[in-house]
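Quick one: structure tokens for this chain, please?
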Amino acid sequence: MHDVTAATAKLGREIGANIRDKVLNTAKHPEISFRSTLIAGDATAATVTGDLTIAGSTRPVQLRLTAHPDADRVTGAASIVQTNHGIKPYSAMFGTLKVKDVVEIEVDVRLPAGR
């Protein structure tokens, strides 16, 4: 009998390593950065426009943010096209496992107490 949990965990580690090493090339580009250029909205919801750098390639992106004051955090998301950043979308098992070119990046930021 095979241990499905162990096999799943091993596959997850292998996929993570492949994404870091082959897709994002973190040895050459260890950081992902975002620099805002425009903020529009209010204290509860905003759109932040800026430049996102992934794998050494910088492209404009809009980040949709929602404030959660009761939880001292801000959450948000942005859609990016991997190939616009020179990234070949991840594929494994002879193409049976694929990541779409358009991916959603999610953020969840805890705010400092007493901000």
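The mean pLDDT is 83.
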